[in-house]
Amino acid sequence: MSWKKKDLLDIRSLSVEEIGEVHAAARTFRDVIAREIKKVPALRGKTVVNLFAEPSTRTRISFDLAAKRLSADVVDFEASSSSFRKGETLIDTVRNLEALNAEFIILRHAAAGAAQFIAERLSAHVINAGDGAHEHPTQALLDTFTILQNRGRIAELRVLISGDILFSRVARSNIHALTKLGATVVLCGPATLLPDTFRELGVEISHDFEAELPKADVVYLLRIQHERQRAVYFPSIGEFVALFGLTSERFRLCKPDALIMHPGPINRGVELASELADGRNSVILEQVTNGLAVRMAVLYLLNGGQAPLEH
Amino acid sequence: MDQTEIRESIVRMASDIARKEPNYPHAVLLGIQKGGVPIARALAAELSSLSGRTIAFGSIDVSFYRDDLGQRLPYPEPTVLPTDINGRLVILADSVLFSGRTVVAACDALKDYGRAAAIRLAVLVDRGHRELPIAPDFVGKYITTEFHQKVRVRDDFVAVVTYPNPTTP
Q1: Which of A227, A259, B108, B145 is the most exposed, fewest CB within 10 Å of its CB?
Q2: Searching chain A, which residue's CA lies closest to the CA of residue B80?
């Protein structure tokens, strides 16, 4: 393997080959997590710190389990109960963790660039688990892996990403990953949540959800982030649902084999109708399982080695 | 070692296995990824024709069980177990036996899939220089090598090559 990076900070700086290496390793970890003993000793003796300065349940649990499945020791560090409250700076916090010999720091932080900031100052491996509205690289790696598992390829697929694009690090990471792998990405949402500047990322932009649905191979719905919304971005949830909610009625416009994806947690009945979330086309729970395999792959690759394997 | 010699070695190893392991028709042949997989396949085919019954064959990847992770980053390959190994005779197959570390990793990996009745080791080439207390049960050929040399079974399975040549005094 040719993986050389110390950290996983974003998708933007990854090559197609590097994305492919994560996917290849994730395939073998899918087998590991399906067997009776779901654990391998690859990271025995290593310490992984889950540093979540923003609340998160699924990503934190997924990283936690991924590290444990690789036999690492995991320390959870939550903002609410931590020294952040006492006014310690981020860099002091992570330097303390490194002084305790942590080899991996998984960081979720509200500030874009936080992961890169600490990665440049530490010898520990840093994984960005979401930094502000910037990137969430493991989410895009698991999403592209899920599409590959279902479709066998990503090139030439048309992926419709809809909803709250402006605030979405998931959208940004997926735009980079999908375009690198040769998909056509179409963004859709109210103009207030989807500024025209996104075109610079090499995507198409549409504000007509119903016109895009019949053409899409994948319909990727983003969560309306109530906690980040100010009233000014759209008049009401009702109006959003009326224009951009994937309802059963609208779903009839889709290709019969279109994949429905969502990074979770779902607002049932807002961006996605409940029966569709649980329906035949939904791969939402597969995304969760694949997330575990992909995060194991990322930890395994970052742990790395000085030389490639020779027989 | 040329194609004919490899062929003959496989046939001889298979008849050794049949003689020493009366239970061999119920054995599982597992090739250690990647070099051991074609050896396991060939042995399984040979044993199948000896017994008149299809011998189970699969592969085992040891990447995550190596003791040198951190120095090396092995490319993980699939582990395919054709059957439950609990209570079965498992015959591990590899192309070249050197330090013995890969075999130990394979035994560690196997433990996570179940408790085999017994594990045996079949290798096409034993090149010496063991670093761990591992001895093969079935060997195609012993080759004398220097530590720094490499021994490779060519992908097309037609020759075993040792390189670079030993330094002449």
Answers
A1: A227
A2: A31
